[in-house]
């Protein structure tokens, strides 16, 4: 009988239920349900609509029942850093605020009163991002301290959904590392740091690795969806799942690869067996996030396709509908050479991305892009230039030379960007699979079920199961 595994992957604009099976050494996927996601304004804050999302999670599970494809296990992943605080009744205190909300403004300075940035990096190996959980929790402590006082539990968003499904609270390791409160040396919470920041220690329990059984479904959930299954922790941080699914050519080494997990963000890096918390690494703003098998995801956040997604949405609100493919097509015909620093905070959550890009160019005395094609060209070229810079930094830090880059995730379908990436980095680009996050989520469950002999074999199976497209740089093909 076929064994189905269910991945629920919740991204910035949508969530999906994907069933996976292994058949004759190949992974097969089937998307069975899709729903919308987005931050909702609540009392002046940008928030998760956790209630309606949980209803959608259940809807997708009902779809399994309808199809007669009952999973043996399921797991949920979302983006990192966001969390809920629960009281002793399991109710959310305050709101599930999303990371693009500006409540963290100035919270970095608050944290540095207790621990300077360099020491914080040395202890945690996590890059500074103003939205990291450490700054979000400091915002709670400063603005609504009563919530912290009353809190019985602290759960990252996927841990919260797993709790709603099973009644069991687990804190998953990969996502926990993005709080900037975990030590990469001990692999668990840095209690000294937590205490010095005045955060309640009791909120930080034992960490659980991907592959851990959370539990079966609660009676209520079972009755609603019409079946029972195990909930198994995937790497609940979406990027950790995507990195698990970076394909490995059979026989190749897993230590010599570069990847870009390309979606709303572009997460570009490699894997390290030991975290690099050096000053050089901090200055280049690399992070050491926890990965499967405690392999560190040594990477950098690059603003990514969020910029182009925002432009597309804005144009559509003005009645100008373009697909991503059309924006790429128009961009490829432009000759504008202006470039922006994709990691400038001006692009994190601007009211208008188009205005932000124009303003940036105007301030820097660069040609100001005017048409959708020009704006897209500036964004795509800027991203590829940023990738090239990142390759150089990675090579200088690790002392290795990387010949190719694996682009995985939804953005790996952007052919124009893939070619620009190959051209600017002068490396071969392997694009795919596009469904890396869901595949990675499934891999953790499949590995827990002994479908593969470890991560390397699982990645080789990914290579054999999904189409990967190759792009050579112009220089290489000359
Ligand atoms: C990607 C991602 C990144 C994280 C950012 C915020 O979806 O998870 O890895 O830095 O979102 O959580």
Tell me about this structure.
This protein is an alpha/beta fold and 478 residues long. It folds into 2 domains: 4-232, 2-Layer Sandwich (Nucleotidyltransferase, domain 5), CATH 3.30.420.40; 237-478, ATPase, nucleotide binding domain (Nucleotidyltransferase, domain 5), CATH 3.30.420.40. Helix content is 40%, strand content 20%. The protein has helices at residues 50-67, 107-114, 117-124, 133-143, 145-150, 157-166, 173-177, 191-196, 219-225, 238-244, 279-283, 306-317, 324-332, 353-363, 372-398, 415-425, 436-448, 455-465, 474-477; strands at residues 4-10, 14-23, 26-36, 40-42, 45-47, 71-78, 83-86, 153-156, 171-172, 207-208, 213-216, 230-232, 258-262, 266-272, 287-289, 296-302, 404-408, 428-431, 469-471. Strands 15-16-14-13-17-18-19 form a 7-stranded mixed β-sheet, sandwiched between helices. Helix 15 packs across helix 16. It binds beta-L-fructofuranose (LFR). Beta-L-fructofuranose binds next to helix 10. Beta-L-fructofuranose is lined by residues 79-81, 99, 237-239, 263-265, 267, 301. Its EC number is 2.7.1.5. Keywords: ATP-binding, Disulfide bond, Kinase, Nucleotide-binding, Rhamnose metabolism, Transferase.
Question: How many helical stretches?
Answer: 19
The residue ranges in which pLDDT falls below 50 over 5 or more consecutive positions are: none
Query: What is the total domain count?
Result: 2
The first-to-last residue Cα distance is 52 Å
Backbone structural class: alpha/beta
Helix content: 25-40%
Strand order of the largest sheet: 15-16-14-13-17-18-19
Mean pLDDT: 96
* Total strand segments: 19
| Rg, Å, rounded | 22 Å
> Major sheet: size, sense and barrel closure?
7 strands, mixed
CATH class of the largest domain: Alpha Beta
User: Any idea what the CATH superfamily of the largest domain is called?
Assistant: ATPase, nucleotide binding domain
Gross morphology is globular
Q: Give the distinct bound molecules.
A: beta-L-fructofuranose
């Amino acid at each position: 009988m076929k064994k189905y595994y269910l991945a629920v992957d919740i991204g910035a604009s949508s969530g999906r239920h994907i069933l996976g099976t292994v058949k004759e050494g190949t992974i097969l996927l089937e998307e069975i349900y899709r729903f919308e996601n987005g931050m909702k304004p609540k009392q002046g804050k940008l928030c998760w609509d956790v209630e309606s999302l949980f209803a959608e999670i259940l809807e997708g599970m009902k779809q399994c029942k309808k199809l007669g494809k009952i999973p043996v296990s399921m797991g949920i992943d979302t983006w990192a850093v966001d969390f809920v605080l629960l009281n002793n009744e399991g109710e959310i205190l305050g709101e599930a605020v999303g990371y693009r909300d500006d409540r963290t403004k100035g919270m970095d300075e608050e944290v540095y009163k207790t621990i300077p940035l360099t020491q914080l990096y040395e202890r945690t190996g996590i890059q500074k991002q103003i939205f990291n959980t450490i700054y979000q929790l400091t915002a709670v402590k400063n603005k609504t301290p009563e919530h912290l006082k009353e809190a019985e539990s602290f759960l990252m968003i996927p841990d919260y959904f797993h709790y709603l499904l099973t009644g069991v609270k687990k804190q998953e390791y990969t996502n926990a590392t993005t709080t900037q409160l975990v030590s990469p040396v001990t692999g668990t919470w840095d209690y000294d740091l937590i205490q010095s920041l005045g955060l309640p220690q009791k909120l930080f329990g034992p960490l659980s690795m991907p592959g851990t059984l959370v539990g079966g479904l609660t009676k209520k959930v079972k009755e609603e969806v019409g079946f029972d299954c195990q909930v198994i922790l995937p790497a609940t941080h979406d990027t950790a799942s995507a990195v698990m699914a970076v394909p490995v050519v059979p026989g190749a080494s897993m230590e010599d690869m570069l990847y870009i997990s390309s979606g709303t963000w572009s997460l570009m890096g490699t894997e390290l067996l030991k975290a690099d918390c050096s000053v050089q690494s901090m200055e280049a703003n690399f992070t050491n996030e926890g990965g499967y098998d405690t392999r560190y995801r040594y990477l950098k956040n690059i603003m990514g396709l969020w910029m182009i997604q925002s432009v597309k949405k804005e144009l559509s609100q003005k009645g100008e509908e373009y697909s991503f493919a059309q924006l790429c097509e128009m961009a490829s015909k432009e000759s504008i050479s202006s470039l922006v620093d994709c990691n400038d905070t001006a692009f994190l959550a601007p009211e208008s991305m188009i205005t932000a890009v124009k303003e940036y160019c105007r301030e820097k005395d660069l040609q100001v892009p005017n048409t959708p094609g020009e704006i897209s060209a500036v964004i795509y070229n800027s991203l590829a230039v940023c990738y090239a810079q990142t390759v150089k930094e990675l090579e200088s830090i690790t002392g290795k030379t990387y010949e190719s880059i694996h682009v995985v995730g939804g953005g790996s379908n952007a052919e124009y960007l893939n070619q620009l990436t190959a051209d600017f980095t002068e490396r071969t680009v392997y694009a795919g699979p596009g469904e890396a996050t869901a595949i990675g989520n499934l891999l953790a469950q499949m590995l827990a079920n002994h479908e593969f002999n470890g991560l390397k074999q699982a990645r080789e199976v990914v290579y054999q199961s999904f189409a990967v497209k190759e792009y050579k740089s112009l220089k290489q093909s000359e």
